[in-house]
Amino acid sequence: MKAIQFKTFGTPDVLEYVELPTPKPAAGHALIRVKSASVNPSDVKNVSGHFGHTQLPRVPGRDFSGTVVAGPDEWLGADVWGTGGDIGFTRNGTHAEFIEVPAAALARKPASLDHAQAASIGVNFVVAWLGTVEYARVEAGETIAVIGVSGGVGGAVTQIAKARGARVIGIDRHEPHPDSPAARLVDEFVPFDDQTAARVRELTGGAGAEVVYDAVGGVAFELALSLAKRRGRVVEISATGRRRVEFDLIDFYHNETQLLGADSAKLGVVESAPIMTAIAEGFDAGRFEAPVVALRFPLERAREAYEAVAGGTRGRVVIDAE
After folding, report:
1. C or N: which end of the chain has fewer Cβ atoms within 10 Å?
2. Helical H runs in the chain?
3. Is residue 191 classed as helix, strand or coil in its secondary structure?
4. Which residues pair with 80 in a beta bridge?
């Protein structure tokens, strides 16, 4: 099979278009013909050596959409999708013509999405689901402030929160892409600047938001804490620009703030499957919409796809493996 592989860490230049043996699925496993696979910022970081557990040589890629061509009889011919914090790191990933996964990792692709759209969902929606549904437990009638609303995770958080009946205040340096679901769904947009906290307080009657989902972290961490209502929940997933942060501990405990971390990379492809199934139900029920796919590249031009993501392309970047 054709695949993208890296043998050393570095810029996208280290990616090689190679021929590898097509996996032969072991008992209890399935072979998937990858139709499309997205490129996430974490894939670029993986190639750069950001993650200490990555084993080389490695085929990168976490998200995929494709068709089962070998494995359990009940899955043969099924269109499936998935993601995982193991694939692309400790097992070969999705930027290839085929990928082998345990049968327990199989989740049916939403019929409402084509393969390119389906491939652009995984990482963003899983970490959004973890923080919004499983950890912060956003409820109808609550207000959630989403820092980084214009990004992939922020857009997914917005969709999930709105589907649960929450009010969304979106925060970012620029407004969401005009064609994106987030642009249509946010109730209020607040620029990320020195007046952000004051503006959010105004919009919440001085109380703050019940939930703050900070998809930026680092430079936005203190702002995130300042936006939380008393006994509010703050979800952190990143540390952009600054790994170590300082905050007023007295204000923190007086406000009785709950601080939650969410890391989709801790979920392997098997552990992610139930969440992907729940998300698929949301898409087929019309509660969620696919994000904007900005660029598509054939597998042999995967290096360009990585460069586009590294360069900050707005919208999703997808590799078509077939």
Report:
1. C
2. 41-48, 115-119, 122-129, 152-163, 181-185, 196-203, 221-226, 249-254, 269-284, 302-310
3. strand
4. 66, 108
3-state SS, residue 209: strand
pLDDT at position 98: 98
- Please give the single-letter amino acid code of residue 62: R
What share of the chain in percent tops pLDDT 70?
100
Q: DSSP string of 97-111?
A: SEEEEEGGG--BPPT
- By the 8 A CB rule, do 232 and 211 touch? yes
Q: Tell which residue, 201, 200, 184, has the closest CA to residue 192.
A: 200
Q: How does strand 167-172 pair with strand 188-191?
A: parallel
Indicate the length of the chain as a whole number. 322
Q: How far apart are CA 259 and CA 214, in angstroms?
A: 11
The domains located in the chain, with CATH, are: 2-122+267-320 (3.90.180.10), 136-261 (3.90.180.10)
| pLDDT tens-digit readout, 40-97 | 999 999 999 999 999 999 999 999 999 999 999 999 999 999 999 999 999 999 999 9
Whole-model pTM over 0.70:
yes
Answer whether 52's CB lies under 8 Å from 125's CB: no
